[in-house]
UniProtKB/TrEMBL annotation:
This is Riboflavin biosynthesis protein. SMART domains: Flavokinase (SM00904). The keyword Transferase applies. Keywords: ATP-binding, FAD, Flavoprotein, FMN, Kinase, Multifunctional enzyme, Nucleotide-binding, Nucleotidyltransferase, Transferase. Residues 181-308 form the Riboflavin kinase domain. SUPFAM superfamilies: Nucleotidylyl transferase (SSF52374), Riboflavin kinase-like (SSF82114). CDD domains: FAD_synthetase_N (cd02064). Belongs to the ribF family. Its EC number is 2.7.1.26, 2.7.7.2. The keyword Kinase applies. It is an enzyme of class 2 (transferase). Pfam families: FAD_syn (PF06574), Flavokinase (PF01687). Catalyzes the phosphorylation of riboflavin to FMN followed by the adenylation of FMN to FAD.
Amino acid sequence: MRIIRDYQFVRPEDRGATAAIGNFDGVHVGHQAVIDIARNAAPDAPLGIVTFEPHPREFFAKDAPPFRLMNAEAKANRLEKLGVERLYQLNFNTSLSGLTAEEFARDVIAKGLGLTHVVVGADFCFGKGRGGNVTMLQEFGEKYGFGVTVADLVTQDTAQVSSTNIRAALAEGRTRDAAEMLSHWHRIEGEVIQGDQRGRELGYPTANMSIDGLHPPKFGVYAVLVDVLTGPHQGSYHGAASIGVRPMFGVNRPNCESFLFDFKGDLYGETLSVALVDYLRGEEKFDSLEALITQMDADCDRARSILAAL
């Protein structure tokens, strides 16, 4: 998969794609339905995705609470697994946000990226002030020479599948409900960073990852599947992770600490993908380190049982 970040500098071989347009936060089943429609709209054309970094919501509301389900790297990894060949990850800045709906259709879709067909959700809005809708996009497509397909919203039971509903499920610790809407486990991906090394002292060395900028799942302990994506220890492991502020040790910045079962090695600087399978319990402040270790032993035993049954 190739990543193109500037619509004004697109190589000839990266033009002519059929692309789904949207933010695709989480790459849930609704997003996947839109991608499949794009795939089938022109089977002989490269399959593309047009998305934006930073997320427009981050751009316009810089002080808003973190809401993203995925960082840019995790999203790219998931899209590549779905067979996307061209990721047009456009820099969302003052210039791009100031384009009118028609300017976006003409200058970005048609002239810039050279797309032959685009697929959008029924609620798609675009252009300055979200002034464009799917009807306008279809009209601009006829004018500037690209096809437009509008995909219906995907529902599951009676609830609409959406990033908002997935965030709500994760905030309540309902990991399997989130996974059903995603069609994959919700994952936290990132680089392993230096921690306080308390876990090693307790007999539970952990791989620490920042969750800055991400919608925080319910704080507590989870049974997890961990993929080590880089370095000499690449592979898949079972484990238990704690997400939160570690109340046993004062006031701390929220993070994700994963203990990989039956693993020995150095993971500092490597990239991990941590899948949240089941929520085990909330964060607690114990009366002693011995009580904490006893609970960690029980957490790991329970996580092993859960993951063995997958």
